[in-house]
Amino acid sequence: MIQIRGVSKSFEGTKVLDGLDLDIPRQNVVTIIGPSGSGKSTLLRILDFLEHADSGTVDFGDGAVDLTTTKTADIRKVRSKIGFVFQNYNLFLNKNALENVAEPLIYAKGLKPDEARKIAAEQLDRVGLADYQDRFPSTLSGGQQQRVGIARAVAMNPELLVLDEPTSALDPEMVTGVLEVIRQLGKDGMTMLMVTHEMRFAYEASNHVVFIEGGHVIEQGDPKQLFEHPREERTAEFLSSTNNVLMIPASR
After folding, report:
1. pLDDT higher than threshold 70 for residue 195
2. Contact (CB, 8 A) for 201 and 177
3. Which SS3 state, helix, strand or coil, does residue 129 take?
4. pLDDT tens-digit map of 106-138
5. Contact in structure between 8 and 53 (CB atoms under 8 Å)
6. What SMART domains has UniProt attached to this entry (predicted)?
7. Dist. CA 65–CA 222, nearest whole Å
8. 218-241: average pLDDT
9. What is the pLDDT of residue 37?
10. Residue 161: phi, psi to the nearest 5?
11. What is the CA radius of gyration of the chain?
12. Any residues with CB less than 8 A from the CB of 78 and at least 6 apart, and which?
């Protein structure tokens, strides 16, 4: 179990996260949903120290780490356990797909180049890009670039794969391929924490769904329960305002 406790964050006096707690069971997909500005992406960025929390800890089972810390050793300890998939891919434009996946293995994990390239090739094959190793980002579609980003994160063998709205920058026709890759990673037992606006996908691919608003957890639970029989009025209001939730079948 990965435990997140008491995470708070304010920007210019506005509280975005307010003492948020969250448990992520191993080999589960936990998906966070909620309206824009509810603190979803801020939480993910705090976990990777792209933002510093005002308070809070994360514990991967080997001792809690203070998310306000500036200690390099503590930050490296947490970052070594997390693979991060960004909204806008964040690929090196002057590197081909294989190099984008291999270089973090060389420079962050200290692997020899041949070993790193072998792992990179395996992960590109895993996301359906075995024939695109030599292609540069400018020659790839948005969906293909995002799959390279996923391969890069998974190649690091993280304890937790964090995905921040992985389809938000994609044209609709590119979304399906990326979601299918994520779905398969979940089936393979990858522990994931994901923020998404794809309600049907959250319903189908998650083990646990968390609805947050105003920096608080409003409701959480099994996807079938939360989507079909929400306990909280605010959860029901949010889901009823989300068009693609209407496509969810009556039974899972």
Report:
1. yes
2. no
3. coil
4. 988 889 999 999 999 999 999 889 999 999 999
5. yes
6. AAA
7. 28
8. 92
9. 83
10. -95, 120
11. 18
12. 47, 48, 49, 58, 60, 65
Of 80, 96, 188, residue with least CA distance to 145: 96
Structure tokens that stand for 231 in this block: 């306990």
Contacting residues for 13 by C-beta, under 8 A, at least 6 apart:
none
First vs last Cα of the chain: how many Å apart? 26
User: CA 11, CA 113: separation in Å to the nearest integer?
Assistant: 42
Res. 251 pLDDT band, cuts 50 70 90? very low
Q: Are 104 and 126 in contact (CB under 8 A)?
A: no
Residue 242 has a pLDDT of 74
**Is residue 154 within 8 Å of 126, Cβ to Cβ?**
yes
Contact 207, 29 (CB under 8 A): yes
CA angle in degrees (0–180, nearest 5) for 33-24-36: 20
Tokens of 147: 């799959």
Contacts of residue 31, defined as CB under 8 A and 6 or more positions apart, other chains included, come to 193, 194, 195, 196, 202, 205, 206, 208, 209, 210, 223
